[in-house]
Amino acid sequence: MESQFDTAVAAYEHSVQEMPFREHIEAYSFLNAVGDVTGRRVLDLGCGSGLYVRRLRREGAARAVGLDESTAMVDYARRREGREGLGAEYLVADAAAPSADDLPAIEGAFDLVTAVYVLPYAPTPAALEGLCATARRALPESGGRFVAATLNPDHSTAPGWYRPYGMELSAREPVGEGTKGHLKAWVGEEVLDVDYFRWSAAAHERALRAAGFDRISWIRPKVSEQGRQEYGDEFWADYLHCPHALILQAEAGPRTAPTASDTSPAPDSSDGSDSSDSSDSSDSE
Ligand SMILES: C[S@@+](CC[C@H](N)C(=O)[O-])C[C@H]1O[C@@H](n2cnc3c(N)ncnc32)[C@H](O)[C@@H]1O
User: Fold this and answer.
1) pLDDT at residue 259, rounded to an integer
2) CA 116 to ligand 1: nearest atom
3) Which atom of ligand 1 is nearest to the CA of 134?
4) Which one is the CATH code of 9-153+200-254: 3.40.309.10, 3.40.190.10, 3.40.50.150, 3.30.1490.20?
5) Pocket (CB within 6 angstroms of ligand 1)
6) Are 1 and 71 in contact (CB under 8 A)?
């Protein structure tokens, strides 16, 4: 499948070494949220070149499967697996809209689903919900967890805010649901240019709930001790003040068979507004 990421394989592979925030903030915070994966079966949606699939497998995951719509990304990940023999597995598919009989192998087969910087590439609310639905589908009937790193809905649009961390984000104003933004990242000699879509915290939460998740929490990233020592607190201060990404975690409980009351029309008292009962939304600016 063609993707705007087809030409970004090298940039993504090198970004962990070239962009210190990826290791010291993103990986540190994301892996902390993921927790111990020993013996767990993990599906990484939008795995790209397989960065986290390899890492989770090395950290003891019983099974680590990456899924991406970019054939170029998956080809690279598979070649690397051929050399390294970690036992990581890869699939090419559109996780936002898999066809009816697509991906039978993922059905209920994982304890945990992850997605690092994938939700912002959903161009429509339906695609956002589709990604969450694929995550739910991969978990067993009894439930499981979905951990994503996603664009901070309130990321800074101040020119140059993220430049010290190797990137620029621009978003058209006024910002509404699905407003297009552009990411430019300088990764060593490579320049990465990709379009993304801005979704509010409520839009993420709606998509997660529609897919069967609840207990949704937004987690602000932190910097590792090693990152503080190597770069100093001053270097990270602006990023941490208004991070470009947050960790989004959701849990799914056991699926219940629909009852007669689930299928009857909703009472008239509803005003259609979203109730954010379980979310712990970030207060980032
Ligand atoms: C920003 S990259 C992140 C790659 C990897 N997760 C990482 O952190 O290095 C986003 C990846 O998500 C993939 N992606 C975006 N939308 C997707 C979809 N609907 N289905 C499958 N993969 C998707 C892209 O092809 C790309 O490889």
Assistant:
1) 55
2) 6
3) 20
4) 3.40.50.150
5) 3, 5, 12, 46-48, 51, 68-70, 73, 94-96, 116-118, 121
6) yes
